[in-house]
Amino acid sequence: MKKECALLGLMVLFAGNLAHAATNSFRIVAPTSMREPISGRLLLFMMCGSGDAVVDTTSAAPGEVWIAAQEVRGVEPGSSIEFHADTQAYPKPFAVAPACPLEVQAVLDVNHTYNRNGRDSTDWESEVVPLSQAVPPGGSEPVLTLSRHSVAPIRTTPVAGVPPTVNPKAAEVFEMQSAALSRFWGKPTLVRAWVVLPPGYERHPKERYPVAYWTHGFGVPLEYAMQNATQIRARMESGKMPPMIWVMLDQRFPEGSHEFADSVSSGPWGTALTTEFIPALERRYRMDARPSGRLLTGHSSGGWATLQLQISYPLIFGGTWSTAPDSCDFEDFLGANLYAANENLYRKPDGTARPLVRFGGKVVETVEQYAKIEAVLGSYGGQISSFDWVFSPRGADGAPEPVFDRATGAVHREVAQYWH
Q1: Which tens digits make up the pLDDT trace of 55-76?
Q2: pLDDT above 50 (res 214)
Q3: Which of 88, 156, 295, 349 has the fewest C-beta atoms under 10 angstroms from its C-beta?
Q4: What is the pLDDT at residue 4?
Q5: CA dist 274 → 132, 150, 259, 413 (Å)
Q6: Which residue, among 361, 351, 357, 304, has the nearest Cα to 334 in the 3D structure?
């Protein structure tokens, strides 16, 4: 019995040591190979485990990876950054991490694009290090060195059924600087698209073609548009689709997804598309420049974008096929009625969590989890913050006012009425 009690005491002591192995204080060393100071959002990821090549968050298991962040500016090569994993952290400050062997990885998101794209080749990252080995001899805090550029994951099949092959000749880039958007942002701002021409376009110089304007869902990488272009061109060549011109619109911008809507926060994207970009396209290509020859289609965020374009510009477009669009009625926005008194994005009236992602019939992520992770990764560029950029009024700092409190989920009634 004494041996069992002693063993139990050692297990409790060991678990206590693991629980306190985490800390709120870290030291991150900037890359020595940098040629000039850099800035960005410094992210720290931590989870139970060992031997992993990458530590990163995922919607499939949002609570398993702990995240902390802070903004850094003008960091000199090889210099140290004092990092405090407490004020901006999910799900909690790192000092109360679970009692398990922990591993950590630091990432510097140079261009503030993590919320939209994840890691890319402009970002810096450290090796994945066991937390127990991150404290140098005689040191008091873990040290991580940003030693390499991140390698972006290869997204060959973002959507089932889309072939991973890409034919670079299937589409050509068309872009133009928008006068309206450039005035709004105070800097040159482009509208971009990939144009898919039908087979025989060059052989029939007098033929004019109907046009399908397509746009993607949130966060879809550039490769996906080219995969779709490859598929569309192949189907036209095989006779499975009629000969048309496809314009594959890019609706991404640094703040997330602008949805080609005119917005006081993100700018006049609808105006730029309809009064500048489409006329320029129709001057460049032999398009059927009638409403009956301009059709729209899109999925998810692209579904909402094309639906609102059809409603906003019924004399320009002749019809839309919008699939699985984002919320079109804010009486049901992520399951909540934004106009109801005392409404909360995180909790239903009965106090249960609002689900967001299901897999295999089970809820794997809630609205609260998704929104709080997005807020730690960055204040803009995420899908939920994109709604604020499209619909909300501008605040005193020039950024859009949030429609709900990210800490509590409480809906801001005045902003919701503006959305209405």
Answers
A1: 999 877 888 999 999 999 999 9
A2: yes
A3: 349
A4: 40
A5: 58, 38, 13, 33
A6: 357
- Would you state the pLDDT for residue 266? 94
Measure the CA–CA gap between 162 and 50, rounded to whole angstroms. Answer: 35
Least confident of 153-162, 237-246, 410-419: 153-162
The residues facing 109 across adjacent strands are 41
- Give bridge partners of residue 211 from the DSSP assignment: 245, 294
Instruction: Give me the amino acid identity at 189.
Output: T
Please report the pLDDT score of residue 165 as a whole number.
65
Tally Cβ neighbours within 10 Å of residue 88.
18
pLDDT of residue 289: 97
